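Structure in, sequence out. Go:
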């Protein structure tokens, strides 16, 4: 679900925002002060886990106690404010990772224009795997590797509009829980299993997104990618071995699919085939022609001729 207060008449915005945002956090929302009300929000449910990204003007959120329901882990990308749970106040600033207390009524004040990623997950799937219940209430630093992976993975799932089966949703939800417990501090026995699940899945998705963004670079390699993601080349290779392929074969496939799209675009018909191959990262045209024919059963020239016809 996508929601923008700009699409709603001013006199109806507060009510609409409380309906959409309040439903996610299961609380009440109001807007102190005279600043115009503005909220842009994306929401997605994945089995028992819900993701929301909120870009909002100052607001106040009141959540009742619910010790057996959902926990809300929030990552503040920009802005900040104050979380107050009956006198136990905690300042929130950009870069913090916090969990909203649900063992008592909590008031959250977003004091300035802020961007927050909120991930709701069942308490029963999270708490038993933490090293200590106190981990829930100690703010974490966003720069931690697990927190960065959690944010990037959750945002990628939120941006991806693909319809998912219930089984796929459960898998992705499990990855998010894995990353959350690593961010908050997992039990020793759970840290290894979480790393194999959520961390590997999030890192693989991040590497694939990075490949897509740099297909045109001939120097794209395992070593280059490993350096960018601060891991070993063996770690990068293992991400693709898990899927029955290799880094080299995956990159080749992505480049061939990309150049095929370029060849069939009417807006690029004035470019030569060699130019388009270079745009996709191929610097050996003979090898490109061979790989293209093996993949698609025709030469690039034949594909372009068929498209023109």
């Amino acid at each position: 679900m996508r929601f923008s207060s700009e699409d709603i008449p001013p006199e109806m915005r507060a009510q609409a925002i409380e309906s959409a945002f309040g439903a996610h956090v299961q609380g009440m929302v109001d807007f102190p002060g005279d600043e115009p009300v503005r909220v842009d929000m994306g929401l997605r449910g994945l089995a028992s886990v819900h993701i929301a990204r909120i870009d909002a003007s100052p607001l106040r959120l009141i959540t009742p106690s619910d010790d057996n329901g959902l926990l809300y882990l929030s990552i503040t990308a920009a802005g900040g404010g104050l979380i107050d749970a009956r006198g136990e106040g905690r300042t929130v600033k950009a870069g913090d990772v916090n969990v909203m207390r649900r063992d008592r009524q909590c008031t959250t004040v977003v004091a300035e224009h802020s961007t927050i990623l909120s991930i709701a997950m069942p308490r029963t799937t999270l708490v038993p795997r933490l090293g200590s219940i106190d981990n829930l209430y100690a703010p974490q630093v966003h720069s931690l590797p697990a927190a960065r992976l959690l944010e990037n993975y959750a945002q990628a799932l939120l941006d991806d509009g693909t319809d998912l089966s219930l089984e796929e949703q459960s898998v992705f939800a499990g990855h998010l829980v894995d990353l959350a417990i690593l961010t908050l501090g997992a039990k020793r026995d759970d840290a290894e299993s979480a790393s194999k699940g959520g961390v590997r899945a999030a890192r693989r998705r991040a590497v694939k997104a990075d490949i897509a963004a740099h297909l045109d670079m001939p120097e794209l390699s395992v070593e280059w990618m490993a350096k960018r993601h601060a891991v070993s080349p063996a770690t990068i290779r293992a991400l693709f071995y898990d899927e029955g392929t290799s880094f080299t074969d995956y990159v080749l496939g992505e480049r061939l699919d990309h150049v095929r799209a370029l060849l069939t675009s009417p807006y690029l018909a004035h470019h030569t085939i060699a130019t388009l191959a270079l745009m996709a990262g191929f610097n050996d045209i003979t090898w490109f022609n061979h790989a293209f024919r093996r993949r698609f059963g025709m030469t690039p020239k034949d594909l372009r001729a068929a498209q023109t016809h």
